[in-house]
């Protein structure tokens, strides 16, 4: 155990050295601007005694007070956040080994489907789970606490991670209300909507979201933030209200690629409550992900361009021109573009015949029932209980409205012949499509607009990184997504960081405050 502790301390020290290395003899202005501050900015301020973790939490609490009534990005704030901050300040004064972590003393918001064994609820946005008691912290929360992070609160989301019904608006939950995109005041995209809203609007430093299909990448691109959808199994799903263990993954949503890389570094790794993490641990690079934050990260990278994703049509010249500029920027950064590629069977992935929904419905019922049964206490113990709860609390005559996916999932009966055929079809689509494309063309990544490519990554468990790319004339953010094979996170981080350094596209939103 002592040897493990020593290695952990060295790893934390190297991480902190990397995050502070560019500081040298530099000094902050008397008043540090906390809006848009990065982890590097905050750690410098901590160690120059210009900021405390308690002051940082107080700043974000005031941001939440002013902005959250408008944006509804946060369901609950941790009542113990200030106490955790004071503890972090004391650890820093005592030079505790944990204070070497880049996340030490940093407030982190987690999506409301990620369990915390504290005073916060874990409800997936539903009143059906209000008051439920989880057996333990989620695996990723355990790792955040080990890194000295402050659990700031729970982010709003599309209720039940947008698997209750496609008829409900994205970003809406019964507990959280309708989350709003801080740039447009429209829908924020789901289901990790609150995680993206809150970081984009500077209500918290960094956050965690989850993705089954598009739920990190979509809100990240539409709210002008950075989202990393990790390889499935790279981060633990234990303690996360599930949809599918085959597709679910937990990842960071932050304002910069560097922040996202450091958060990812903190939450990856084996967890005895999630067997998939043991196999996926082979993808974790020695020395962590911070080492891949290289300004010239695009140089020499082979990036594929699948033109089907760039066909916006003659009526949308803005996005056609905008993404051509993005492609040119990649080339300017030294990337080797492999253009005019095609993913075999791409139409089948998008037209509903892939079998993804058939598999997800059955997996959802199985995994949700298992999650609910493990709770120490809960108002509901099964998917059928959740359906009945919604019926009893609905004011609509049509009691099926708003939970159509729940009803379809409840009608399944395990993994039968139809589900096995669907799973085999999904595996074949990935192997013959995206995997073959990447291997045949020796690609480091594929670049696609927004989150359009997310179903391709979802069905194969592949990673993706979304980075802000600009804004249209109406102020709507748009982004670029880089994706690769399992374990390609180091390459994707290099590429994303290189692109971010060249473009510096992100701008904070202008919000009318109360």
From TrEMBL:
Signal peptide annotation: 1-25
Domain Amidase as annotated: residue spans: 56-454
The protein, known as: Amidase domain-containing protein
InterPro entries documented for this protein: Amidase_dom, AS_sf
SUPFAM superfamilies found in the cross-reference section: Amidase signature (AS) enzymes
Keyword annotations: Signal
Matching Pfam families: Amidase (PF01425)
Domain of life: Eukaryota
